């Protein structure tokens, strides 16, 4: 592999709004929020490719793309993502496609003199029995949650690849691990969506059907952390501008909410007037899952969108984009 002479730097991302930025995965929940944020900040030279236009698992296509476009910055938000069922059914896809996407994008970025790359993963990289809140140092300290280990192993390899390229080539690759995200372009599929969009859809459909009640599994006691994807996009810009170090950083709000509080808030935002019933004979899931984002918060970044405001924004998007289809 050819050596290039990259120099670590920071505080340069926001200085030139005409610089070419490749946002990989720009039609996804995360990628689309990053594009909205960059456009709002005045960036004019975003290079974007749909999956159909550029399959990031194809090494030679990715190489040709970077040779032709030569972006200066890369934000890697393309990934094969899915829930427990999909991970169990398609383990080869979850490990294989993600390793291919990130290996191709990271290596081509380095070879074609990208100045800085940000790799995104998620909290599933941490061991099943991590301390709560989960600090960055919990990485690789114990066995993973078996239901998503294929995806998690690929994401851990992505973090390690960024670190290895930084060490060997002095190249500015960083990693951010966001907490549970929600917002416009989320997946509202009836069978394989995350808890927040799933609740929103169920309350909406119950409201439309004038149902008397909505039954939700468990007691509602588990504690979780949610962040609006526009806050994540804001954090991504902050990291591109201000963070340049070996360690991956957790990106969360640090605010916990019980599933019960969340469900009640979603019910209120949707305007469902029936009853919310908890089926405590069904399993609750892990009692607490929260990221320790004190390192990022210590650098001065803060989330800005309250859960209530974020839910209002997301329900509006759902009505305009999912219900109307
Ligand atoms: N959603 C969350 O709550 C959450 C939380 C923490 C971290 N993250 C991280 O954020 C990243 C993005 O997640 P997301 O929720 O935005 O996922 P998403 O909505 O499914 O978006 C992923 C995007 O990647 C594209 N993509 C997948 N395979 C590709 C390929 N081979 N070539 C080109 N494009 C490809 C997809 O295009 P197609 O749909 O056309 O395939 C899609 O636009 C992931 O790394 C994930 O771990 C997400």
UniProtKB/TrEMBL annotation:
Pathway: Nucleotide-sugar biosynthesis; GDP-L-fucose biosynthesis via de novo pathway; GDP-L-fucose from GDP-alpha-D-mannose: step 2/2. GO terms for molecular function: GDP-L-fucose synthase activity; isomerase activity. It catalyses: GDP-beta-L-fucose + NADP(+) = GDP-4-dehydro-alpha-D-rhamnose + NADPH + H(+). The keyword Phosphoprotein does not apply. It comes from the Eukaryota. It holds the Pfam family Epimerase. Its EC number is 1.1.1.271. This is GDP-L-fucose synthase. Residues 21-252 form the NAD-dependent epimerase/dehydratase domain. The lineage of its organism: Eukaryota, Viridiplantae, Streptophyta, Embryophyta, Tracheophyta. Keywords: Isomerase, Multifunctional enzyme, NADP, Oxidoreductase. Belongs to the NAD(P)-dependent epimerase/dehydratase family. Fucose synthase subfamily.
């Amino acid at each position: 592999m050819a050596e290039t002479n990259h120099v670590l730097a920071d505080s340069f991302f926001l200085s030139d709004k005409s610089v070419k930025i490749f946002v990989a995965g720009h039609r996804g929940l995360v990628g689309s929020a990053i594009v909205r944020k960059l456009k709002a900040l005045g960036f004019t030279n975003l290079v974007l490719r749909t999956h159909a236009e550029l399959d990031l698992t194809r090494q030679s296509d990715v190489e040709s793309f970077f040779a032709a476009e030569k972006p200066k910055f890369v934000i890697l938000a393309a990934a094969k993502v899915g829930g427990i069922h999909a991970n169990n059914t398609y383990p080869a896809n979850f490990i294989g496609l993600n390793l291919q996407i990130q290996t191709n994008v990271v290596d081509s970025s380095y070879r074609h003199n990208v100045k800085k790359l940000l790799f995104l993963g998620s909290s599933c990289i941490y061991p099943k029995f991590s301390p709560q809140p989960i600090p960055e140092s919990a990485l690789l300290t114990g066995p993973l949650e078996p239901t998503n280990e294929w995806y998690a192993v690929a994401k851990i390899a992505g973090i390690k690849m960024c670190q290895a390229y930084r060490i060997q080539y002095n190249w500015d690759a960083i990693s951010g691990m966001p907490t549970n995200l929600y917002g416009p372009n989320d997946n509202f599929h009836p069978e394989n969506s995350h808890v927040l969009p799933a609740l929103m859809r169920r309350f909406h459909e119950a409201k439309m059907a004038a149902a008397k009640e909505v039954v939700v599994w468990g007691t509602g006691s588990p504690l979780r952390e949610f962040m609006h994807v526009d806050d994540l996009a804001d954090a991504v810009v902050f990291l591109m501008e201000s963070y340049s170090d070996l360690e991956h950083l957790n990106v969360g709000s640090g605010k916990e909410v019980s599933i019960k509080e969340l469900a009640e808030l979603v019910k209120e935002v949707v305007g469902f007037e029936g009853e919310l019933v908890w089926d405590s004979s069904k399993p609750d899931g892990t009692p607490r899952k929260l990221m320790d984002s004190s390192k990022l918060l210590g650098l001065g970044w803060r989330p800005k969108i309250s859960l209530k405001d974020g839910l209002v924004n997301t329900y509006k998007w759902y009505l305009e984009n999912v219900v109307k289809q």
